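Supplementary Methods S3. Input chains for the assembly prediction are listed below.
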Amino acid sequence: MATAVLTTLDPKSRAASRGMSDLAIRNLFIIPTILFLIIFNIFPLLYSLGYSFTDFRASGTGQTNFVGLQNYRTLLNDPFIWNNFAITAKYVIVSVVGQVLVGFGTAMLLNRSIPFKGLLTTLLLLPMMLSMAVVGLFWKLLYDPSFGIINYALGLGTFEWLSNPSMALYAVAITDIWMWSPFVMLLSLAGLSAVPKHLYEAAAIDRAGPFYTFFRITLPLVAPILMIAIIFRTMEAFKTFDLAYVLTSQPTTELISIRLYKMAFQEWQTGLSCAFAYIVLIMVLAITNIYVKYLNKVKER
Amino acid sequence: MAAVTTSTERTLNKLAIAGVLIVTLIFLAPIYWIASTAFKPRNLSTTIPPTVVFTPEVSPFVKLFTKRSQLRSPPTPEEYAAAPWWERMVFDGGEKVVRDGKGNVQWSGYPSRFMNSLIVATISTILAVGMGTLTAYGFSRFKVKGEGDLLFFILSTRMLPPVVVAIPMFLMYRTFGLNDTHIGLIILYTAFNLSFSVWLMKGFMDEIPKEYEEAALVDGYTRMQAFFKVVLPEAATGIAATAVFCFITAWNEYAFALIMTNRRAQTAPPFIPSQVGSGLPDWTVIAAGTLLFLLPVAIFTFLLRNHLLRGVTFGAIRK
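Predicted structure tokens for the full assembly:
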């Protein structure tokens, strides 16, 4: 695949007469990367595609049988798996909506003449650069019902966050909102600063109200870049593993990635988990496709 | 808007400043709490109400680096007097430092995990950025058939959930004896960062005018020389920014490390949560470990501040 694509060279490009030809250099530069990714990403996935049609268990020495599409049928008919998808959908919605509200709101505040704007922006961006597993873990102390600072600051007494089945998912989402609102803020700021100032001036001359200005000028012009932030965060939230895994072990926070991890590495249902991985993989590729389309759309402008 | 500075406008601006300050304080509070807990005596780390003012001490860091065991009986006055200052801190906490037969202090698991993180992140970054820079140049300067599809393919490898990739990799590594090795983790992180590095570097390469190399070619350079002597120096900032991003990603990565390593090659992210365990964890030690772990990232974030937007959008949005 890699070599077949790379056999023709643009006739207009300079065919260097000295040293290696452009064609050779291009192949030398590109093919190793493609091969590396094929060997360490695509080949393993083909390997697991094969296993997804078997009842293979990596822990045992028992015989492995070909079961056809049985694994896929089992998974799609399993109400527990659908429950994991429902939990994940709820988590994605809560955390992405929260990030958009907090991130875009903060960007609107920052999009004025604020002293020390650069420094404040950098400080606000810090959470998203940190390790979700390590820093997320520390939220266990912040959420602690008796001596956590969250309950103390909000005057909630001994309110249970992480050990409360109906609250745990929201607690994980709140931590995720803390970590990733800065991402939405960063992209929104870029979108907001690209809105031409003369539009606001024209709106002011026409005595347009703040709501009109926001919904007719600001929002439509920021929308494409905000969309990129939303799609990217949706994809990441869909894949969430670290944060939920280190913070709680409630069944109500069992996101798809956690279910998959348990199925593969704790229950050792390797064949079944390979099939599950494929279902997730197809969903992620679909979102990636939309994401790249949007990226290219914004890039062209 | 700019010209019209009415009193409403000024009030709004003041409100915005107040709002930004409040949001910043809320966002930094958890990080401040980590940093302050890392210098607290253990009994002040879990108090009601939370302790804000205290005399900072370094005992959490001493405990972080040493292997300790519960004291059955308090140390004799001679033992206590003979112990160095840092060992007294451990005595004060009701524990003793574990020593081997020759009296050498035993390290905790933390320093080796930190070193593993450093080794794995550094080597995988060098590989990913090296290969990524070459590939980005190839895509930027030469016509490649199906370029869009190839770039999508490259990016899609990055988007896969780690657990999905980890299942077959775990089985393959088991066959080749690569589980719990540095090299195994380095390969995974290189593959993971490679796609990112290609995308980001392509943006930087596209910005370097083609005329630079063409002038060099006219001057008698070969294409290869032009690349190394003209293009690479021009791309230095981009390479540095990409490298820092790759390093942070590898440094922070959790899921692969959790699945693929358990002791010898384990990095800090799966190690630190494993220290919480059950019962009452010593949050001061966890905070100390977390603080040391996030410090390099905080410094890098500050250095990267002008490239963050570009980095998080895979080079799509420049500005």
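The beta strands of chain B are 68-70, 95-97. The mean pLDDT of chain B is 90.
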